[in-house]
Amino acid sequence: MRTDLAVIGAGPAGLAAALAAAARGVRVTLVDAGPEAGGQFYRQPAAGLGARRPGALHHQWRTWKRLREGLDRHIAAGRIVHLADHHVWCVERRSGHAPGDFAVHALLGPEQNEPAVVRATAVLLATGGYERVLPFPGWTLPGVVTAGGAQAMLKGGLVVPGQRVVVAGTGPLLLPVATGLAAAGTTVAALVESADPRLLARQARGLAAEPGKAVEAAGYGVRLLRHRVRVLVRHTVVEAHGTGRLTGVTVASLDADGRVRAGTGRRIPCDSLAVGHGMLPHTELAETLGCRVDGGRVHVDEEQRTDVPGVWAAGEATGVGGAGLALAEGHLAGRSIAARLTGARPDEHGGKRAAASRAALRRFADALDHAYPPRAHWAEQVTDETVVCRCEEVRAGAVREAVRDLGAGDPRTVKLLTRAGMGWCQGRMCGPAVAGVAGCPETVTRRPFARPVPLGVLAREPGEGQV
Amino acid sequence: MNSLRLARSRPGPAFTVTFDGREIEALPGWTVAAALWAAGITSWRTTRHEGRPRGILCGIGVCFDCLVTVNDRPNQRACLVPARPGDVIRTQEGTGHAD
User: Fold this and answer.
1) Which end of chain B is more exposed for a tag (fewer CB within 10 A), N or C?
2) Same domain, A138 and A269
3) How confident is the model at residue A96 (pLDDT cuts 50, 70, 90)?
């Protein structure tokens, strides 16, 4: 299959870009891993569940309806082809061909056994993000899930992890997760946030740039009150308890430096814990393409272009900032692509509003970053017995030994000595944890394959003439 | 379930799958993980080295913690694979290739 523009990811950024480009005459192929468009933010209840109020668990549903209607219109007109259930594992720049010749390699369906290739002149990476979870004793117990995971299961399957849940960690995602689970009938035993609310107050100016967000936050506050959710700020979960599955957590209060205050621990019984410590961008495809990645974000210019000609990026992949920012960035990317593919410059005046919105939302995202810093000293709570790398079952003690006794000074050496980060997830889940426990800065890891690829698929990758 | 009520869900007819020989009900559209959660099951894998129980962590296909054996095929991500009528779901022991 051959197309002008391959958009990787059908979340807010990818959809906004696809609509903006298609409206300007670009033939778009939207390649997405989900069974339906929407990404994580607009993850839809599965069709078979017959939800007549699918927006009950969502925010900005009206925006979604507008995106969905636009997508349907362009699909009907043949301007957009939507490839669902396509898990992209590599975007290849085909050297030796004319500039602007990319091959998007995907695996089909949830089983991911069959390959598919899309050839495109331009590529937009709208690959979104996933959640960072830092380890603590007991975090591998069944019943401990990521906050975003609990939300994804609720939005997509209308199922909840248990009867009595604690929501914990740090960041703005915890609020909708707690209110969503409460609305779905789960008892939310506590919302445990490590950040100091005074940091939020200090960011008042940056946060005031988006008054609508303050209204949204107030709405969560009201719902937490209505569901009688206990909110503990400057607290953290120090341990999860149970054998075979979760039976409770111990939470403790934090001092001004972010250290656990001795003697403040108390136990909260629960059968599930939804925990998250912020979001991380998916940057593997960009890294393989050779795009510049700074501090874990794909670097882009004013038009959302990466430094690789023909490759644009938008949304969380370029820095975590939420759905509103992703929509603005996607829209600007779509306009830029439509213009650049015809050798023109994008009409700056037309994109003015989206550019202003992008600037305001980026300021807002920066303010949130300062209000919800990752908790300092979290690694002190990680006992030597705590598993850090879940796939390879590497304990914190082994990581510390690699640094202390074997001379490892960076995450890669720690990995070679301990296998931490060598498992199925390729270090996606444990990367920040291993670096933190080892006390070294995180480094960019190159993953030529963005997901595991069956050897059989590689063996029969279609040759020159077949794509 | 409250969440189904909240979304005013009118699912298609429920069907049966088995988990380690026990019959459980599933709704059309559910992943294997959703069906297991709805039946109150939170772990369906034991780890390769220490035999520890695992289930859902990330819920979006990134972490590979929720691997499970479905119809004799091991290493399926329960959070991605749809449940189908008659599916034989089994706890995956280690790599899933031992038996």
Assistant:
1) C
2) yes
3) low
- Domain identity same for A115 and A8: yes
Enumerate domains of chain B plus CATH numbers: 14-93 (3.10.20.440)
Q: Mark which of A277, A301, A317 sits at the end of a domain.
A: A277
Residue A221 Cα to chain centre, angstroms:
24
- My answer on whether A201 and A142 are in the same domain is yes
Task: Provide the number of CB pairs (under 8 Å) joining chain A to chain B.
Answer: 172
For residue A55, the model assigns a pLDDT of: 86
Contact (Cβ atoms closer than 8 angstroms) between residue B12 and residue B27: yes
Confirm or reject contact between A84 and chain B (CB < 8 A): no
Say if residue A23 is in the same domain as residue A69.
yes
Q: How confident is the model at residue A209 (pLDDT cuts 50, 70, 90)?
A: confident
| Number of domains chain A contains | 3
Q: Are residue A145 and residue A161 in the same domain, yes or no?
A: yes
Q: How many helices (H) and strands (E) does chain B have?
A: 2, 8
Interface of A with B in 102-141 (CB under 8 A): 110-111, 130-131, 133, 140-141
Q: Is B89 helix (H, G, I), strand (E, B) or coil?
A: strand
Residue A162 included in any domain:
yes
Stretch among A188-202, A369-383, A447-461 having the lowest mean pLDDT: A447-461
Residue of chain B nearest A143, judged by CA positions: B42
Parent domain of A423: 382-438
Kindly identify which residue of chain A lies nearest to residue B50, measuring between CA atoms.
A393
Which residues in A lie closer than 8 A to residue B64 (C-beta atoms)?
391, 423-425
CA distance A439 to A422: 19
CATH, residue A202: 3.50.50.60
Residues A76 and A14 in one domain: yes
All residues of chain B having their beta carbon less than 8 Å from the beta carbon of residue A50 are 9-12
| Residue at which a domain ends, from A249, A277, A305 | A277
Distance CA A226, CA A234 (A): 22
Task: Answer whether residue A464 is part of any domain.
Answer: no
| Nearest neighbour of B9 by CB, restricted to A45, A111, A185 | A45
> Does the interface ipTM go beyond 0.85?
yes
Mean pLDDT, residues A253-274: 95
